[in-house]
Automatic annotation (TrEMBL):
Keywords: Membrane, Transmembrane, Transmembrane helix, Transport. It comes from Microbacterium trichothecenolyticum. The lineage of its organism: Bacteria, Bacillati, Actinomycetota, Actinomycetes, Micrococcales. The chain crosses the membrane at residues 7-25, 101-129, 150-174, 194-214, 251-277, 297-323. This is Dipeptide transport system permease protein DppB. It comes from the Bacteria. The gene is dppB_2. Its main location: membrane. InterPro entries: MetI-like (IPR000515), MetI-like_sf (IPR035906). It is found in: Cell membrane; Membrane. CDD domains: TM_PBP2.
Length: 331
């Protein structure tokens, strides 16, 4: 019980500190969203009335209250789900933009992460069990793929399969010509989304499977030398049972912990990869917010990513306490 109480207290304090920093950092940057939006409107032409200027400053900035009052107001708005208004796509609320982009990233990066984890752990367990044989050559091959920058790998896949062969689309999350009104719940749209997301998902799998494979292979080599594996072999148990029940189950514990952390970063997406494929996810939204100095959108995206990472770490700490009793006693 002491283990869980300490973990809960740690994450509560971390969440408070993270949200406080998320409030403070944009206010330390030069300028403010209201001035940026007004400058853009003036460059676009036309005169701005005093009423328009006053309303924009009231909505996006010009708050003359103290920092403490702004901090309390920020907490109040955040607890109500109000993350402000984006100047990139004014007057769209930040929550609407994030809600529209989040499913694309979660589905694409989430499925790709799960696939790479399952493949990496499964193949890594087999390679570690058959160490010293020809299957060990899989390790340097996948390690090379992992060492290649994933955005460069994405560009190579686009050049080969999209430009040269024409098998897959170059950009987008779905066929905008077939669905001009936007996403919809239909098998045709799901098929279009899967077709457009294949190359981005393949990029993530190829660039990340090597890490899972290498880590699992090394843990298997260490595990098969343990006394309980030798005892199981001395009992005459079948090698398949030893591999599945004794070796793989214990060797996979560190990988499961790392998988939980990776799921937390799924929300962040693969920023450069989404930019390469013009994929409508959180990563592309983050780049747009930085390029346009959209502090409200930037703040909202960082907040969602931070909460997702903390939640994933918290859940994995709880799960790890169940699957490994040693973690509960080493407090």
């Amino acid at each position: 019980m002491k283990f869980y109480a300490r973990r809960i207290a740690f994450y509560v304090v971390t969440l408070w500190a993270t949200i406080s920093l998320n409030f403070l950092l944009p206010r330390l940057l030069p300028g403010d969203p209201a001035d940026i939006l007004l400058a853009k409107m003036q460059r676009a032409g036309g005169e701005l009335s005093e009423t328009t200027v006053r309303n924009i400053k009231t909505l996006l900035g010009g708050d003359s209250s103290s920092m403490w009052d702004q901090y309390l107001a920020y907490w109040g708005r955040m607890l109500q789900g109000d993350l402000g208004v984006s100047i990139t796509k004014y007057p769209a609320p930040v929550t609407d933009l994030i809600a529209a982009a989040l499913p694309w990233t979660v589905i694409l990066v989430g499925l790709a992460t799960v696939i790479s984890f399952v493949l990496g752990v499964g193949i890594g367990a087999w390679v570690g069990w058959r160490r010293g044989t020809w299957v060990d050559h899989l390790v340097p091959f996948t390690t090379v793929l992992q060492s290649i920058p994933y955005f460069w790998l994405a560009l190579v896949l686009v050049a080969i399969f999209s430009v040269a062969l024409g098998w897959f689309p170059i950009f987008g999350g779905y066929d905008v010509w077939a669905f001009p009104e936007g996403p919809e719940w239909s098998w045709a749209f799901i098929g279009s989304a899967v077709y457009h997301g294949f190359l981005p998902a393949l990029t993530i799998v190829l660039s990340s499977v090597g890490g899972w494979l290498l880590g699992m292979r090394n843990m298997m080599v260490s595990t098969v030398s343990e006394d309980y594996i030798v005892t199981a072999e001395a009992k005459g148990l079948k090698p398949v049972r030893i591999l599945r029940t004794y070796a793989t189950r214990n060797a996979a514990i560190p990988s499961i912990a790392g998988f939980g952390i990776s799921l937390g970063f799924v929300v962040a997406g693969s920023i450069v990869m989404e930019q390469v494929f013009t994929y409508p996810g959180i990563g592309k939204l983050m780049i747009q917010s930085v390029q346009n100095s959209d502090y409200a959108l930037m703040q909202g995206v960082f907040l969602v990513i931070t909460i997702a990472v903390l939640a994933a770490n918290f859940i994995m700490d709880i799960v790890y306490g169940f699957i490994d009793p040693r973690a509960r006693h080493n407090v």
